[in-house]
UniProtKB/TrEMBL annotation, chain A:
Stored CDD domains: TM_PBP2
Residues that span the membrane, as ranges: 23-48, 82-106, 118-140, 152-174, 195-217, 253-274
Gene3D superfamilies: MetI-like (1.10.3720.10)
Organism of derivation: Devosia elaeis
One GO biological process term: transmembrane transport
Keyword Disulfide bond among record annotations: no
Descriptive protein name: Sugar ABC transporter permease
Localization terms from the record: Cell membrane
Pfam families attached to this UniProt entry: BPD_transp_1
Top-level taxon of origin: Bacteria
InterPro entries linked to this entry: MetI-like (IPR000515), MetI-like_sf (IPR035906)
This protein's GO CC annotations: plasma membrane
Principal location class: membrane
UniProt keyword annotations, A-Z: Cell membrane, Membrane, Transmembrane, Transmembrane helix, Transport
Length: 288, 306
């Protein structure tokens, strides 16, 4: 907006009118932020309190040196195991998604061949289909592949679910890259694989970050597929393990809040550091 | 030489494209097509028996007690969708408008509103389950401490409030998503249009309804469609907060829970039935696909190309 238009606007409207409107919007924002943060703050505070303290004064500042609840989780539960499992499953899925997604996007975006349009449509069809509703055939498929109760079942499903968005984001990006570098290398006799690996891949990293974040959050947080595929307690991921844990400690609220805090901590910390990338990545499907 | 080069190139493209295609074909397309086929058979546990035509569909739609269960769950999904339309998307639009002004602290508010979105639904669900606890939850404790003790009630324990309690938790969890999608839409509105609008009108309301709202129509299309698909797939939050039966007395039962219960069984329903479960899945799937298409087409039509 131009300064001249701004000035004319403020003169006509009056500084008080503008302040009143902005003041109202500011109040709305502050109230909303309090509502957004209060539950998380109460959760963290409660994690450092004993159960009677939580019942008596849920809002008071705790003694942060009281880490008995966390010690209990560390020593008495399978929590670390769940955390480790989540890292393994999410990590393996992300490696597969980004590798396979880049391969497909590179082929579709960089080469002209018969059927490339159809293949892109095939991937995009997976974007909108709610895979939850195909859980019965998926269950039977995993049984036939003998990977029920095996983390491979999760890794495979997550990879397949992540590919459509990744191919979509990466193909669009790869198409915008200039041809000159590629043509020059080809003249020098570089192989197609060499061109992709050494010349093009370093250029697609920004798109990989966006596609990566868009997929890593739902995979890390997923509960539905482990619920159906995994029974063995030692193989459970964090959200699923949390249900076991919450069931065991129903009356010990201090431990419950500590468990929730520990589960939420990794993603909250990464989000605070990388909020810009998170917001861009998670809304990238919806923002053109 | 050119011939050889072409085949080498063809092989290279095949190497790149086949593994990712195989994953999508095996773990997305094949299961979804199978779900349609499964619905036409009788099942006993994991064994497929006879072809029964449309009988499974007939059962879940017209035979008691399935008919009432289906209707009840569907009705709850409709309530959830419209309530979230106001609480999540409506509030999201308002917050986006406030953030768009770039008032002091806007960056902090933006990070705060999106924070719950990155959390697992399971964490959110347990957190609110503890907050809604009739005796020790912060909701009732707060009401009592500010003299509104008469409002304190077992939020999750009575049919009249349980579904609404879940809806509020869901809105808290996800309001940041439409907020930031709308905000991105508003930030793309060209400055000249806004300057022109300011010269024309004083009224904030006219500006919002006549200028901003029509111009963020593409964001609205996406946000509405995603909410619709999400609302009719709702599962995790009610599963944790209200249980697989949608307690109390089915007041929080939704299609996702009902489908899962029918397919995989539970303590009270006992037997699992893949045939009826698949029929439900196909019906939900077709319903979502049909309405989502209508929503998208209708809303696209009012989008303005800038």
């Amino acid at each position: 907006m131009s300064a001249a238009a701004d000035n004319a606007y403020y003169q006509r409207r009056g500084i008080l009118g503008t302040l009143g409107r902005d003041g109202l919007l500011q109040i709305i924002l502050i109230a909303n932020t309090i509502i957004m943060l209060a539950p998380i703050i109460i959760m963290v505070f409660s994690a450092f309190k004993t159960t009677p303290q939580i019942f008596q004064s849920p809002f008071s500042l705790p003694d942060f040196s009281h880490i008995g609840n966390f010690v209990k989780i560390w020593t008495e539960t399978n929590f670390l195991r769940y955390l480790l499992n989540s890292f393994v499953v999410t990590g393996a899925s992300m490696v597969l998604i980004l590798t396979l997604g880049t391969m497909a996007a590179y082929a579709i975006g960089r080469y002209q061949f018969t059927g490339s349009g159809f293949i892109l449509m095939f991937f995009l069809a997976g974007l909108t289909l709610p895979l939850k509703l195909a859980i019965i055939p998926l269950f039977m498929l995993m049984r036939d592949l003998s990977i029920l109760n095996n983390q491979l079942s999760l890794i495979f499903v997550y990879t397949a679910m992540g590919l459509p968005t990744t191919v979509f984001i990466m193909t669009g990006f790869i198409r915008t890259l200039p041809n000159e570098l590629e043509d020059a290398a080809r003249m020098d006799g570089a192989s197609e694989a060499r061109i992709m690996w050494s010349i093009m891949l370093p250029l697609v990293r920004p798109a990989m970050v966006i596609a990566g974040i868009q997929n890593v959050v739902p995979i890390w947080n997923d509960f539905f597929f482990p619920l159906v595929f995994i029974q063995n307690d030692n193989l459970k991921t964090l959200p699923q393990g949390l249900t076991t844990f919450m069931g065991e400690y129903t009356t010990d609220w201090g431990v419950l809040f500590a468990g929730l805090t520990l589960s939420a901590a990794p993603i909250i910390l990464i989000y605070i550091v990388l909020s810009k990338q998170f917001i861009a990545g998670m809304t990238s499907g919806a923002v053109k | 030489m050119p011939q050889l080069r072409m085949t080498g190139r063809g092989l290279w493209i095949t190497v790149l494209i086949v593994p990712p295609l195989a994953f999508v074909a095996l773990f997305i397309v094949y299961p979804i097509l199978s779900a349609f086929a499964y619905a036409f058979f009788d099942w006993q546990g994991l064994r497929r028996l006879d072809f029964v035509g449309l009988e499974n569909f007939h059962t879940v739609l017209f035979v008691e007690p399935y008919r009432s269960w289906t209707l009840n769950a569907f009705r709850n999904n409709v309530i959830v969708f419209f309530a979230l339309m106001v609480l999540q998307n409506g509030l999201g639009f308002l917050l986006a408008y406030a953030l768009w002004r770039e008032l002091p602290g806007a960056r902090f508010h933006r990070i705060a509103v999106f924070l719950p979105v990155v959390l697992s639904t399971i964490i959110v669900a347990y957190l609110f389950k503890l907050f809604y606890h009739p005796l020790f939850g912060v909701v009732n404790i707060t009401l009592k401490s500010i003299g509104l003790g008469w409002l304190a009630q077992p939020w999750l324990g009575q049919g009249g409030t349980a579904l609404w309690a879940l809806i509020v938790a869901q809105a808290w969890h996800m309001v940041g998503f439409p907020t930031l999608v709308f905000l991105a839409g508003m930030q793309r509105i060209p400055g000249e249009i806004l300057d022109a609008a300011r010269m024309e009108t004083e009224s904030e309301w006219v500006k919002i309804t006549k200028i901003v709202w029509p111009l963020v129509a593409p964001s609205a299309t996406i946000v509405f469609t995603l909410l619709f698909v999400g609302a009719f797939n709702w599962f995790e939050l009610p599963y944790i907060m209200a249980g697989l039966d949608g307690s109390p007395f089915g007041s929080t039962d939704v299609l996702g829970l009902y489908f899962y219960r029918t397919a995989f069984g539970n303590v009270s329903a006992g037997q699992q039935d893949f045939g009826l479960g698949s029929a439900l899945a196909v019906l939900i799937f077709l319903f979502i696909a049909a309405i989502a298409t209508v929503i998208t087409v209708r809303l696209r039509a009012r989008e303005i190309q800038l």
